């Protein structure tokens, strides 16, 4: 997908007045992983390769408790991924960088709120009496 939405739900009902949307979505994250994979010498360009990178993102992408620590401890971040042709490639801190882009869209050159800010802003659009229940 090409969008992310923060949709507050209260007592089973969506609160449409508070729904917020961002253009940051899975396709941009896949593009970003394709781009940063070139740092390891990998080159993914075809539609089929995009699908492989999308799967790699979904299987290996992870949010690090501390992004800075993850960037400096790359050895234990390494994960292998088997390509459809049987070749195996490795991802290290790229696994965390692709997910961190959700929180820091500037990685992708976007001037948008991170997903955490989007959720907070959506909650703040809701009635003050129900906000605590939305966390």
From TrEMBL:
What Pfam families does the entry give? Answer: Actin (PF00022)
**SUPFAM superfamilies attached here?**
Actin-like ATPase domain
Q: Which reaction does it catalyse?
A: ATP + H2O = ADP + phosphate + H(+)
Q: Which InterPro entries match?
A: Actin, ATPase_NBD
Query: What's the protein called, per UniProt?
Result: Actin
Q: Organism source for this protein?
A: Pyrodinium bahamense
């Amino acid at each position: 997908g090409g969008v992310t939405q923060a949709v507050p739900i209260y007592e089973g009902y969506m609160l449409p007045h508070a729904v917020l949307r961002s253009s940051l979505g899975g396709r941009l994250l896949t593009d970003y992983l394709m781009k940063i994979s070139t740092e390891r010498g990998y080159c993914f360009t075809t539609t089929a390769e995009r699908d492989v990178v999308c799967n790699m993102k979904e299987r290996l992408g992870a949010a690090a408790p501390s992004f800075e620590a993850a960037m400096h401890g790359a050895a234990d971040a390494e994960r292998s991924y088997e390509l459809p042709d049987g070749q195996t490639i490795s991802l290290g801190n790229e696994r965390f960088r692709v997910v961190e882009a959700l929180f820091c869209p500037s990685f992708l050159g976007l001037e948008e709120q991170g997903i955490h800010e989007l959720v907070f802003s959506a909650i703040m659009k809701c009635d003050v009496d129900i906000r605590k229940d939305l966390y």
